[in-house]
Amino acid sequence: MRCNKLIIFGILVMVMALGMPVMAVTQTLERIQSSGTFNIGYVTDEAPLSFKSPDGEPEGYAVELGQKVAEELKGALGMANLAVKFTATKLEEGLAMAADGRIDLLCAAASDTLKRRKKVAFSMPIYMTGTAVLLRKDAPSNLVRVLEGKSAYDGPIWRGSINRALANHTYAVHAGTVTEKFVRDRIATLGVIAKIVTVEDHAKGVEMVVKGNADAYFADRVILENYATQSAASGKLMVPGRFFTLEPIALAMARNNDDFRLIVDTTLSNLYSTGGITEIYQRYFSEPSEMTLLLFGFIARD
To answer: At 66, which helix (H) or strand (E)?
Structure first.
């Protein structure tokens, strides 16, 4: 008995030394089976991917896909009465919760990056998006032109004119996101003198642009387009057509949980290959284009 205790203690010491959360030692499927609960995390301000409805309920494209995973789990585990619990969170906090097992699946606008893969695993992609920018419709014309990828002034595009158009402005970004890193890196590379401010949620970034406290807000295009068309200030806002980056969005979960990830990917693959994804996609976006359907077909696996 003493030997067993020493072994367990030794394992815990090694886990702590490696910086691994103790909760992550338990495999996700084992945790779900023992607790009888499937824990889904969602972000409240990433409409239409993940958001809290006016009634206070979790909604969104990614959230609905998480619910489809729950249905698959009920059959795969033989747990018809499996409970589904939703936890509201911020994106970075949600990724940390997925990493250490406090939630089983994060359904949000989480870009699948190599840096994040050091902490969490990702499903197959559920949506393709990228960094875009939100501006007031009365923004300076030279700033608008540069952010659209055009010359700030009539004539050839050259770095000096780009820098002048971008300089002395305030740019807002969501703290801790892939977009924040992109904007900071880009401003540094160009040598532009500008102010970058971080916000804790998208609504605040949009509000800063509306009130003139920021000249532009950079974030995922799909989220910005939702604010530009659905918010109370929609008549004052615009999202130029330019993508600054292209990023796959995916569901996040703890690493080294292949059996659970297989169920998640099986759920998505079945939706993609049978066309079941179309109805869900239409609910939050629009009719999927032929290219979008081809992409889903390419991602799906037998």
So the answer is: helix 61-77
pTM for the model: 0.83
**Is residue 1 situated within a structural domain?**
no
pLDDT higher than threshold 50 for residue 208: yes
Q: Are residues 45 and 108 in the same domain?
A: yes
Please write the tens of the pLDDT for every residue from 144-163.
Answer: 999 998 876 554 444 444 67
Q: What is the chain's alpha carbon radius of gyration, rounded to the nearest angstrom?
A: 22
Residues 6+ positions from 171 with CB-CB distance below 8 Å: 183, 187, 194, 195, 196, 197, 214, 215, 216, 217, 218
How is 70-100 classified by DSSP, letter by letter? HHHHHHHHT-TT-EEEEEEE-HHHHHHHHHH
Instruction: Starting at the earlier edge strand, list the strands of the sheet with 120-122.
Output: 83-89, 37-43, 105-107, 252-254, 120-122
Does a structural domain hold residue 4?
Answer: no
Domain hosting 71: range is 15-128+248-299
3-state secondary structure of 128: strand
Structure tokens at 286: 């629009």
Number of helical H runs and strand E runs in the chain: 13, 15
Determine the Cα–Cα distance for residues 196 and 245; give it in Å rounded to an integer: 18
- Residue 50: strand pairing partners: 46
Strand-pair category, 170-174 with 216-220: parallel
Total residues belonging to the chain: 302
Label residues 59-89 b or e (16+ Cβ within 10 Å = b).
bbbbbbbbbbbbebbeebeebeebebebeeb
Which residues, 6+ apart, have CB-to-CB distance to 200 below 8 Å? 90, 174, 175
Contacts of residue 146, Cβ cutoff 8 Å, sequence gap at least 6:
152, 161, 162, 165, 166
CATH number of the domain enclosing 54: 3.40.190.10
Domain count, the chain: 2
Domain for residue 9, yes or no?
Answer: no
